[in-house]
Amino acid sequence: MQLKSLRMLEAVCDTGSFGAAAQLLHTVQSNVTAHVKKLEEETGAQLLERASPVHPTPAGRLLLEHARHMLRTHDLALAQLQGLDPQGASQVAGTLRIGSMETTAALRLPVLLAQLRRQHPGIDLELEAQPTAALLEALMAGRIDCAFVNGAAPHSGLQSWPVFREELVLVSGQPLTRFPTPQEFCASVFLAFRQGCSYRQRVELLMASQGVTAVRIMELGMLDTILGCVAAGMGYALLSRALVEAQQQRFGVHWISLPPGLAEEFAWVDTCFVTGSVAGWSPALRAFAQLLGIHAQAIAAGEHVRPGPAQRVHRRQAEPMPA
C-alpha cells in the first residue's frame, strides 16, 4: 500500500466526499477515486460506503486506524530528518552518538555538549570514550555518528577536519627542572591508555628517538587513574598540556615541555572531527558540527599555540567544515 493512497483514504473519510478530498489534497477527483479503488483491490475489502456523506465501512475503519498511525510516523520521521517539528517549526531532535579520545572528552567536550543541549534540548547524547583505533573501527561499523581522534582519518570513506591542537608534555609526580636522560627513562615506566591510543604511540616513538627501545608501558585505562598514579610517583605520562593544567590542582602533578629538537616532531597533535559522508548527516549531527566549528575557532583564537610543521601542512590541505 502506498502512503499516498492511505492519505487519500484519510482525506475522504475526514471530508465525507471524494470531491472535497481532491480539493484538500490539490488533485483531481478521479485520482482520489483510483487510489481508493486500488486500496480496495489490495485489501480485498470494501472500504467506503458511497453514500452522502461518504463514510468508512467496518473494514475501512480498521484500515483508517492503521493509516493514521503510519502517516503520523512518516510525517514525524520526515520532519526530524529535515530538522523540523511536526508543525513545521525548526526543531532538531534525535540521538547523537559521539566517540572521543578520553583526553578530548575530559578537556574539550563538556562545555561544547552543554551548549549543544541548551540550543537543541531535543537532542539526546551518547558519548563513548575509546582510543583512536577503536573509534575509527566503531565509526566504520556505524556504531557511532562521529568521532574525535588524533590526526586525519586514514580511510577514504571517512571525512575529517582538524578542530583542536594539543601540545603534549611530559608529566611527572615530582617537579622537573630538566628533561630526563635516556638512562632515567630506562629506569622508569610510562603510564598510558591501552593499545590503539595515539598518545601511547607518541610515547613509543619519542622513546625510540632517545634510544630507549624497550620502553616499559603500563596500561591503566582511565585518565584519572593515570594522573593519580603519576602523582603517586609510579612513572611518567605524555598528556595534553591544557589537560594537565586543568587537572593540576586535583592531582598535584608536574610537567615539562619537550625540548625544541623533540617538540617539533612529537609535541604537537591535531585532534580531528571525523564522520562519514556529509550527505548522510542527521540534523543532530549537522547542528553539532556547526557548533563545533564556531567553538574550535574561538579556542584557536584564545590559545596562541604554535603548531609544528606537520600540523601546518595538514591544516592547509583540510577543507572547511560544512555549515
Automatic annotation (TrEMBL):
InterPro entries from the UniProt entry: LysR_HTH_N, LysR_subst-bd, WH-like_DNA-bd_sf, WH_DNA-bd_sf
Record's keyword terms, sorted: DNA-binding, Transcription, Transcription regulation
Domain of life: Bacteria
Domain HTH lysR-type, first and last residues per copy: 1-57
Protein name (Swiss-Prot/TrEMBL): LysR substrate-binding domain-containing protein
Cited PANTHER family: HTH-TYPE TRANSCRIPTIONAL REGULATOR (PTHR30126), HTH-TYPE TRANSCRIPTIONAL REGULATOR GLTR (PTHR30126:SF40)
Assigned protein family: Belongs to the LysR transcriptional regulatory family.
